[in-house]
């Protein structure tokens, strides 16, 4: 699952890592505590005059299909289960034609301890590079005629606890894993010409653990649990747990 994440990189750095282009008026707000229903950057590809363009856009986190009566549908659709997305009315059209990548610097997950206590962890790459999660996007027309772009992150079952290294640690955090992509998989996933969404999802799942095996994780302060807290200190290791 992915319910909170970090995206605080400058637009130029994001565009460079995504190998994309961005409108000169694109505005992104740094956030160390991104929550559903807020605006987030996504990467998608479009055919314009026969040429493929990879672009960075801003979308509302929580997918709202075109047939929805109001935005509230997106509150329940910030994640999409990869096993069923192709058949679910909310996601199936996007799986076929509107696939995206959601860039993050890392994400938070809460580990359940005996007695019901939960301890937050920050999962990130070892070298500070971005993670690109497999996502979906949709356009929804509001009553006033404006168009709203929205997105969702695909998830899959977590690795087994018997897996070595960080994969086994991820298993102990949650039973769901947001699906990361390597560079080649991202190119296949974003390609708007390919409408075999089911086949692409299978490819996503096959390479996800290889990508995630390069991650690192550490415990952070419980302050991250309050979305009103938003500062670089949120991703710092919780040193009170080291002694």
UniProtKB/TrEMBL annotation:
Keyword hit for Protease: yes
EC identifiers of the protein: 3.4.-.-
Gene Ontology biological process: protein-DNA covalent cross-linking repair; proteolysis
Family indicated by similarity: Belongs to the SOS response-associated peptidase family.
Protein name (record): Abasic site processing protein
GO molecular function: lyase activity; peptidase activity; single-stranded DNA binding
Gene3D superfamilies, per database record: SOS response associated peptidase-like
Keyword Lyase: yes
InterPro entries: SRAP, SRAP-like
Native species: Glutamicibacter creatinolyticus
Pfam families xref list: SRAP
Keywords for this protein: Covalent protein-DNA linkage, DNA damage, DNA-binding, Hydrolase, Lyase, Protease
Top-level taxonomic group: Bacteria
């Amino acid at each position: 699952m992915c319910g909170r994440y970090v995206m605080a990189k400058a637009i130029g750095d994001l565009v460079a890592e995504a190998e994309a282009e961005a409108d000169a008026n694109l505005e992104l707000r740094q956030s160390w505590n991104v929550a559903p229903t807020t605006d987030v950057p996504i990467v998608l590809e479009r055919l314009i005059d026969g040429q493929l363009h990879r672009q960075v856009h801003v979308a509302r986190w929580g997918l709202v299909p075109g047939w929805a009566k109001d935005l509230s549908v997106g509150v329940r659709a910030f994640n999409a289960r990869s096993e069923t997305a192709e058949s679910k009315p909310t996601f199936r059209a996007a799986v076929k034609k509107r696939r995206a990548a959601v860039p993050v610097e890392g994400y938070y997950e809460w580990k359940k301890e005996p007695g019901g206590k939960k301890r937050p962890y920050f999962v990130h790459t070892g070298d500070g590079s971005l993670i690109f999660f497999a996502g979906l996007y949709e356009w929804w027309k509001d009553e006033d005629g404006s168009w709203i772009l929205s997105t969702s992150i695909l998830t899959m079952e977590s690795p087994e606890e018997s897996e070595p290294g960080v994969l086994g640690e991820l298993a102990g955090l949650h039973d769901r894993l947001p699906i990361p992509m390597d560079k080649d998989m991202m190119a296949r996933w974003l390609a708007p010409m390919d409408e075999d969404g089911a086949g692409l999802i299978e490819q996503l799942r096959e390479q996800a653990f290889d990508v995630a095996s390069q991650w690192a994780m550490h415990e952070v302060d419980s302050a991250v649990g309050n979305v009103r807290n938003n500062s670089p200190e949120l991703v710092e290791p919780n040193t009170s747990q080291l002694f």
